[in-house]
Structures are given as C-alpha cells and as structure tokens.
Amino acid sequence: MSVVSDPELVARCRAGDPDAWRELVERYSRYVYAITQAFRLPSHDAEDVFQDTFTRAYERLHTLRDDDALRPWLASLTRRLCIDRLRASAREQPLEDPEAEGEDRIEELTDAFAVHAALAELPEHCREILDRFFARDESYRTIADALDLPSGTIASRISRCLARLREHFAEENDPDPRLEV
Amino acid sequence: MDPHPEERLAELLALLPPAPQGWVEAAQELPLARPGLDRLVARAEADARFRELLIADLEAAFAQEGVEADAATVEAIRRRLSLP
User: Fold this and answer.
1) Which of A25, A135, A166 sits opposite B27 (nearest CB)?
2) What's the gap in Å between the CA of A23 and the closest CA on chain B?
3) ∠B76-B77-B81 over CA atoms, to 5°?
4) Within-domain flag for B27
5) Which of A32, A58, A91, A125 pairs with A159 at a CA distance of 20 to 30 A?
6) Whole-angstrom Cα distance, residue A46 to residue A24?
7) pLDDT (tens digit, 9 = 90+) per residue, B5-64?
8) Is B58 within a domain?
9) A137 contacts chain B (CB < 8 A)
10) Domain range holding B80?
11) Nearest by CB: B10 against A18, A21, A162
C-alpha cells in the first residue's frame, strides 16, 4: 500500500486541497489526542487543545520550514497548548506535575506513531484486526462479529498480523533500539 | 533485537486509540470553513436583520456563503453567536 508522504501532503494543503487537509488531520488525530491525554487535561480542555492545534497548524502551515518535520512541529504545538492550559488552570487550583509526565510520555508516543505508520502499510485485513484489538481494545467476539469471522480464528490472525508488522517495522527501521523492552 | 518485540509493538499500538470522531470531524472541517464563518459572524454582528435570518435558517445562510453546514460548523457558529 502506498501512503502519501508528509511533505507531499503538506504541499497539497498549502495549495488549498481540502482533501489533503482532511487526510493530514486523520493521520495525526490519534497522536495529537494522545498528547492531550498524556498531559491529563480535563476532557473539555483536551478538546479545545485538540481543535486549537489543528486550527493553528492550518493557519501556520506556511511557516513550517522542513516539510519532513510535520510530526515534531505538531507535537510542539500541542505540547505548548497543553502547558498553557495546565498553567492557566494551576492558577485556580494547584496540580501535581502533569507537565513533567506529559513531557516524558511524548517520546513514547512518537515511537507509537512510527508503529502506527508501519501498520498503515500492511494489508487491510491486518490493519483492521490489529487496530481493533490493540488500539480500540475490542474483544475477540466484537471483532469476529464486525469482520464476520469465526471468533476462534481471531487470536491466530492477530498473532500472524503482529508478526507481519514486526517484520515490516524491522525492515523500515532496521532495527530500532527504542523498541527494546 | 529483543526476543519479544511483538509485545512491545502491541503496547505501542495501544498507546494511540482513536480520537473521538466528532473532534476529528471538527478539526477537518472548521479550518476550511473559517473564512465563510468569519464573514457570517461579521454580517450577523453588524446587521440585526441578517442575524435574525441566520438564526431562523442557518442552512440557507451557510449555503449563501458557500459554507458546508455540517454539524461541527453549525455548532461553531452557534457558539460564536452565543445561540442556544
């Protein structure tokens, strides 16, 4: 499966292609969402930060100097907005230290983003089953019903697809030491 | 390479659940609709009659400005005009 590169997507967004913008949001929505969760923002603040991140990204896309750096640029935008939000609420009620927790988590989320990018290049049946089981936390039964498969085959399919993801990820990253447990 | 990297891959997959669908749709549509929304809000603030027409028939006003009346955009203009 061929996935449009970030620089190509950015170029299409700058040229005013609305479908490219929608694809960019789709590609990064989980990552931006996970950063807001890492900073433990209340839901309404997390939603505001999520929307502000993408609105600012849209308005300032022309200021991105390296089109290959879209992910860290979005992470930086989201992080800054999360910290602003936390500091504003800390003026009202003292918090523990979610700023530090959030900072620690961003690196791991970046690894997770790389794994999801590798997942996006697997065949549809593997993408679907791994995403449903691990990211959406669906049960074997729910997955079997949704995909019209015998529930007894779900575990073995997950195992095969995970092995395939491992091979693909290793080829792409050769090998990534951050994956070591 | 770690002997059990598949476990680590699984952990990393689990770290990125989907964002709420409504959030994603709003992020996809609102920046695109922003110029039309700005025009609608400016007219509604300057012209009480237009504001009444807008409140009475949001979809028609959106169509006039070439703005798609999806749920996120309608909600955005309701917020900006402090409509119920």
Assistant:
1) A25
2) 8
3) 125
4) no
5) A32
6) 19
7) 889 999 999 999 999 999 999 999 988 888 888 888 888 889 888 888 888 888 888 887
8) yes
9) yes
10) 38-84
11) A162
